[in-house]
Amino acid sequence: METKQANHKAKEEAFLVAQDNYWKAVKDYDEKVEIRKQRDEELDAATSALDAAMDQRDGCAGYSPSGLTAGMCIECIDESYECGPLSSPSSWSSCSCNPKRDMYRAKYDAELQFTRDVQFSLAYPETIQTYEEITEAKTYVDALESELSANRTAVDTEQSRHDAYIAELQAAKDAATFALTGLGQAQEQEASALAVRDSALTTLNNAKDDLEETGAELKIAVSVYNGAQIDYDAAQATYEGVLRQWREKIESVKETLAAQDASAGLSLQFDGLGGYLEVPTVNLRTEFAIESWIYFDPVRSDRRNLPVIAQARTEGGDLNKFVFVLRLRGGPSAEEESANPDYQYYYWDFKMGSPSSPGYAVEMQSNPIRPSGWMHVAISVEDLGPKYNAKFYINGDLHFTRGFSADRWSSKLPITIMKYHDSKGIHYGSGRIDELRIWNGKRTAEEIRDNMHISMNGWQQPLRSYYKFNEDQTLPEYVPDVVRDWSDMRLDGKLHYPPSHPVKYVRSGVFEATGSAARSSEYALYFNSTSELQNYVEVPAFDMSGDFTVEFAFNFDLDYDDKTRLPLISQSVRDGTTRERFVFVMELHGYPEGDPESYTDMYWSFKMGDCAEETPQEDCSYLYELRGDRFMPDGWGHVAVTVSRNSIAYIYTNGDCVDTAQCRAQIPPEQDQRLVSTRPITIGRLVDELGYHGMTGAIDELRLWTVNRDRENVHAFMARTPTEAVTESSIHNRTLSAYYRFDESETETTIFDGTRRLPAEIATGEDWYRHGKLVGPRKRMVTTALDEINLSSRVY
Length: 796
Hints:
The chain is of the alpha+beta class.
């Protein structure tokens, strides 16, 4: 419902944006149309002005814009003068009449000169003429001079008129050309604005269609929701007592989580004033390894009482009579402290005494360090035949290597933490300690680095003793001052301290959330299984005849993994049968169905067979058939199937079951006859009547429960690592039947079960640990599953 509402709101916002863009485009287009009209008007005005100018062509008979011919020149009276025609009506060019005018000027100037010469001769006659003759001739010559002067002036006037007309015609031509250019630009802008408007309209129509589609989906979802609400109200009214029980259960879960969070991630703190820890002795005369996190801060800790782990052969003996001593050295002496309080040169020192030598069997020192908090210290001794090789690691880095062959001491005295007693007296250490592990074998650099940042379940081999220092003082089984050994040897330790200076449990911080949230530097198992290169895991079968839950984290990448080999987990009665004869099949599918390259979403399915060996195939069917909600595969996800003894089944995807018509199923209890098989549960491989089916993808945090875990429990714990209290609870009530974290080393073929068992069961072999096995190569994948599983619903 929330997904539909969010999708509809997003489409509505997209529609409003498209609508706003459309109206902006319409407004811009209207503005461009007005500009184009204005340019049209300007061009009309310029054309009219040009036509008016051309109409002034006096003296050119029969002129028309396209009919000007030779001899009809503008303002040219004499048609005998040849003047070329206009090139085209649109060019508005004109011919020149200046040569004719120049001819007239020369003619008139010559005649005027002749007339003046005549006037001169009349003024000074060479012959005696009559007065009347002279007067008559003079009158005629004067008149002729006036006429010639007038004709000469007329020619100049005609030239001025012609020049003015040509200027006016050219101005009109320029105005018309400018207006035509402006009109072309306006038409281009109008066309561009029209294209933008049409595109905005298309986008608006698409957004409108999307909005109507999501509106219809939302309407259906609201209808479904309203129907579900009615069903819920009815169920709430009918089962109020059941709801109260669930609320009480949820409160119990919250209290359990609070207790788990309170007890997880602790360490032991010593003040250097008499407190120490004893743990039982182990055999250190062959291969062994000791590793631990130790906290020392020169600013806050007692710099004269440095951390130490040791085992003496006799109390008060020399150090070369010790089985071993591992201690932090350096720092200020009593004299140096007053003179140089900031002196911080330290190093770790490791010695093992030898009965065959007055000195030591082996002696090593780390490189100089400046401690400022937690340090991881590890010693590993490897048997190389006639000799041994000792290696010294600080924070996973190799600091020292030494070979030796001398014998070593053994002792019945306990190993002491933060105390040793030599010939010089008793020495106490200060600081904190966490995750102390003693191994009956060497540890490689890779094993040290891969596991130094994670908490173990205690069943790794060859782990001899393991102290987490996470004692929960609120539990009834808590024994004061006893430090539990989490290995199967149960070599519990004992605290000693004066009443005025107790050893305290304080928050560790070595690595966060050892038991309650996301983990640090752990692994998932990546599968790449084919019929040619089989790669799968088998874990022991468990009881699925009553209440049960199967849940795990998964990772499938549509861009990287093979979409034809999707993750699956199953349990068969035998290989090669139809799936209706499987106890169950849990499988990831792509959506939409069909071509794997078209997958955009995915969903999980769960089926339990209902077909016994003697049943004909045509009568076979599935007892339960569930389909989970669709989701987008964008990282780690979580899936859980719960089936109750009341014949109600759910499949939860990322903690949700939205489409209850498909992710929930209920059958009559009398029909709930489930198949049973002793064959292992298989991850990454399925063999049915069609052949071998492999998978690609990663699996993590597989948990098998013998209870029907409801949605609240699934949702609350799917992004949390079960704490020691939860895995320990399997000792008493078996609710967590098996738990697989897939954190083993790359060379390990065993898949360790992280639950605990009773000591009596260990002794008799009854209900032994449900360890699985890996077939094929192990490809580890650094997991962020518990970080990435989104607690909000990502299904739809």
